[in-house]
Amino acid sequence: MKIIKQAIAGTLESSDLMVKVAPSDNDSLDLVISSEVIKQFGQQIRLVVLDTLAKLDVSAGSVIIEDKGALDCAIRARVQTAVLRGAGSDELNWEQLS
Amino acid sequence: MKLRRSMLFLPGANAAMLSTAFVYKPDSIMFDLEDAVSLREKDSARLLVFHALRHPVYREIETVVRINPLNTPFGLKDLEAVVRAGVDVVRLPKTDCAADVHELEAQVERIERACGREIGSTQLMAAIESASGVVNALAIATASKRLIGIALAGFDYCVDMQTERGDGSELFYARCAVLHAARAAGIDAFDVVFSDVNDEAGFLREVELIRRLGFNGKSLINPRQIELLHNAYAPSEEDVDYARRVIAAAEAAERSGLGVIALNGKMIDAPIVNQAQRTLQRALASGTRQ
Predict the structure, then answer these.
(1) Alpha-helical runs (H) found in chain B
(2) What is the pLDDT of residue A97?
(3) Chain B residues with CB inside 8 Å of A17's CB?
(4) Is the N or the C terminus of chain A less surrounded, counting Cβ atoms within 10 Å?
(5) Does B16 contact A at CB distance below 8 Å?
(6) What's the mean pLDDT when you consider all of chain B?
(7) Contact B47 A17 (CB under 8 A)
(8) Which chain A residues are within 8 Å of B48, Cβ to Cβ?
């Protein structure tokens, strides 16, 4: 899935996260994560985000995560929403989203 | 016999509430993808609910999702998401006739086949929100074996009836019609939400009314209402004591091969035994009334 425009999903409320995606200038994947619980869960958040992006076949783009202590399920949902919005896609492939 | 006294509404787009609501222990949690979600967040709410349903914290509690109507651009996508995620019950809003349930059932079965879910494992409930729905309540309640209950939705019903919420008299016919349809169909009946969360006395008056009418429970919009509702539905100590004696008498009669059950010289029949079992189930769930 190719990110063709800027898009945002989520909020900055507690237990949520905000995900911003944008097209890449150099076909690389740039992931930036900030979190209130980065010391305890930074690695786990990173793994969930990368796994979610890989299942959506996203290999290039800027992905900025601002986490407020969200559960894994919320992280997956917000990343998927931002990517789908950024790709301008209305098609839902449930195998990729599971 | 599943207890469904409290059905807590959660806005589907609210990650915080979806992450914590299970701690309040309602009998059922209802994720809302319809009225509680703005048009621009329909996509994000659908994915949030999809992943929440698959999360281990919701394995021990009955999950219900109110999808958007199937004649909107969102309804079928919602249904795809929640059936695939393993939701226990799909709640259809604005059900006006049996055909609405038939259409939903056909789509659910198609999705179950497509994703490999056991056919028939997705249960349904129908929300009745109009004069047509109330008039067709029995046809709706008997439209599918998947139906576990029907619910009255007060706000839209009152708009359709050109009236407004008041002392409950405006809902009297609809409550009775929905309740009779549910009982005739052998399924559960759920009452409307009580929207003023600060009016505890008014909430309890309404709960007492619908409990006496015979409703299984009520849709709730705030976790603070759960304990109040459960306590109002809890039996008194005298009720529990009587129920225990009824069950003991029934068991003794069965052991001795007697067809007739007697307690204190009075004959006890099957409906009284069933009522006693329901009383003990409610006491087991939330103790006796305080």
Answers:
(1) 15-20, 42-54, 75-85, 98-115, 131-135, 137-141, 154-160, 172-185, 200-213, 224-233, 237-255, 270-286
(2) 87
(3) 15
(4) C
(5) yes
(6) 94
(7) no
(8) 73-74, 77-78
CB-based contact A77 B55, cutoff 8 Å:
no
| pLDDT value of residue B177 | 98
What is the interface size between A and B, counted as CB pairs within 8 Å? 64
Are B52 and A73 an interchain contact pair (Cβ–Cβ within 8 Å)?
yes
| pLDDT level of residue B252 (50, 70, 90 thresholds) | confident
How is domain A7-88 classified at the architecture level of CATH?
A: 2-Layer Sandwich (3.30)
Confidence of residue A55 (pLDDT cuts 50, 70, 90): very high
How far out from the chain centre does Cα B10 lie?
14
**Complex ipTM > 0.85:** yes
Partner-chain contact B50 A97, CB within 8 Å: yes
Domain ranges of chain A: 7-88
* Residue written as token pair 């015979």: B214
In this predicted structure, the answer to whether residue B258 has a pLDDT above a threshold of 80 is: no
Inter-chain residue contact B84 with A94, CB threshold 8 Å: yes
Say whether pTM exceeds 0.80.
yes
| pLDDT mean over B72-77 | 96
| pLDDT above 90 for A33 | yes
> Is B38's Cβ below 8 Å from some Cβ in A?
no
Asked if the B6-232 domain carries CATH number 3.20.20.370, the reply is no
Residue count of chain A, please give it. Answer: 98
